Amino acid sequence: EDYAGASSLSVTVAPPAEDRLGGLGNFERPDGGVEGWTAFNQAIAWEGIGRDGGGLRTVGPLNERYGGSGLERRFDVQAGTILHASVFGRTPVNATVQKTKNFGVLRVECLAEDGRVLEWRETRPVDAEKESGVDGQWHQASCEMPTPIGTVSCRVVLVFVQPEFEAGTIDFDDLKIHTEDQKLQLHENFDQVNHAQESWSIQGESRYELETPLSGTAALFLRANTELSVPVVLDPSRAVTISLAAQGLVNAELRFPNGEHPPIALDDSSDAGQGWRAWRSTRMQDLPSNAKVVVRARGDVLVDALRVSQPTANAETRSLPIMNGNLDGQLPNTSNWEIANDEWSFNNEMQFYAQDCVSVRNGTLHLTALNRPVGTRKYSSGHATTKHQHAVKWGRWEVRARLPEGRGYWPAIWLLPTDGSWPPEVDIMEFIGHEPNKVHHSAHWGPLRDGLKPWDLGQTSTKTFAGPDFTKDFHDFACEWTPEGVVWFVDGVERHRTTPSPRKPMYLILNLAVGGDWPGPPDETTPWNASMEVEHVKIWKWIGSKPEKRIKELKWNKRLLVLDTTTVKAQDLRTEIDRNIAAWRDRDLHLVLLDGDRVGGEEAEQDASFWRKKFRIVQEGAVLVGKDGGVKERWSVAPQLQEIFDLVDAMPMRQRELRDATND
Fold first, then answer.
1. Is the pTM here over 0.70, yes or no?
2. Which residues contact 652 (CB under 8 A, 6 or more apart)?
3. Rounded CA gap, 580 and 572, in Å?
4. Which of 16, 48, 136, 591 is in Cβ range 3.0-4.6 Å of 540 for a Cys bridge?
5. Backbone angles phi, psi at 351, to 5 degrees
6. Which of 170, 188, 206 is the last residue of a domain?
7. Helix (H, G, I), strand (E, B) or coil at 649
8. Are 66 and 347 in contact, with CB atoms under 8 Å apart?
9. If DSSP codes are grouped into helix, strand and coil, which group holds residue 357?
10. Is the separation of the CB atoms in 626 and 610 below 8 Å?
11. Which residues neighbour 526 within 8 Å (Cβ) at sequence distance 6 or greater?
12. For residue 627, is it within any domain?
């Protein structure tokens, strides 16, 4: 029965706000400054740090064991050859990894059509534990690898790896990959570094800065009186808020052409940490559609995290109040929250999650840590989730919380998929109680470690934000997750973003762990009965382009076999395709693999249910789709490979392709 008193703690479901600048205000590129690459965890190419020009810089520490910082890219390769790969690496004397367990890796993987790793090799130009390459000099390391049948591409990764939470820097340069006949597949010397972004107009002197960015890997330095501007298109029907972080003084405003509206100025509003100040406008309504963001440096200044936000159009919002009876206060209503009563934990944590450690008092949720053993666990604490109540695929989560200070405390706000798999995982906020001015943001994706890979290797993105004392006041911790990636915010200011995006519905977890690998155990200084306090939880559902719309808009320039993978026959067919990959590719055939509600293969971004509906695929069945988007054949069970080849070879378009190839 609901408690008679109403709590102000609630879950709000609505779409997230849009950044009308589309991420331009981060002043960084996802390729780390090198075209064709993808950067993760603060890796960045920079002039003057290589052997003779540019180089790649990778750094730690990161907030998990075996975290990685680096660059990756894919390149095409033929099966049946030998690849030779080499790279130079070093650790700078002023940021050495000596006397740590850190190491730098060149890793090359052969990939099947569906992304599976068929073969891999790695070599380490820097390995601190083996005292290799830690003298500050450049060292070359190399490896070679056969490309097995079924290989359609390779992935190369240059990465700094930390087995423990230890700092340091590793630089890479002069990556070369060639085949046994000396045909060069890839050569990267990092000399063509470019951090410039289109769309910005800069009048005056500016440069990109690596040392102290607030969000991501780079900030923009503006010399005094330099003016930075960018056009932006607004929706007049929605409110607008502009935010910016700066080290130094700026004049920042939103301007409108032809005097259609007075300029909207940003005010210096709060301390953003690390010497940064947060600038923010008031919330404005009924603005013209065409505008321009203008930032002028009043002195030498660094700027970062510029954002123009508008709520998503046609949003429906509903509030779910949380109130229930409990002897020691209010327990969140079980129709909205699940409260753990178990030893559920990872990472050698020491707590038992008990229901009486979770309560709502005076409109605030408390997750409380007690020096009380339960079973085999030395301590008790609180854990609440929305697993079966409010799971969302793409959206925004915002939690306003005050965090507990004390050695051994490990509060977190994070997301996990509803199907129980791992990864993916999104850590909106993690906090270590003896570091009161630091919060950590992470995302994990890719396959589970399988014994072949000793670390996630580019499948984790992480960022530490050093700001105010998070134990003194309440702060807003948020993340926005869309098909394009994940963006993290603290107090409305962007702190980190990553491009990889989970594809499964996820639910929210609030917990206060005690002990574990990262924070270590409590000690005599730990203040017991401390709480992670939560003032509000808000969840928005992203209502961007729908999967069925994306499928309708696909351009059918390839032949597809859409295959239900749940049967032995389907698995046998996949094996036959791998064995005959050259003939498969010659016919321009591509796989779409359906496994329950999951999808893999060529169009992995789509939902399986929409593929089934689009082509009326029965369970355990398959369809062959032509380049015109039409279904050419339908099977109730997986067919034989030769049957597929015969059907394709009989298609008029295939006959024309063969004739054209002969004429060429």
1. no
2. none
3. 12
4. 16
5. -100, 155
6. 188
7. helix
8. no
9. helix
10. no
11. 406, 407, 408, 409, 433
12. yes
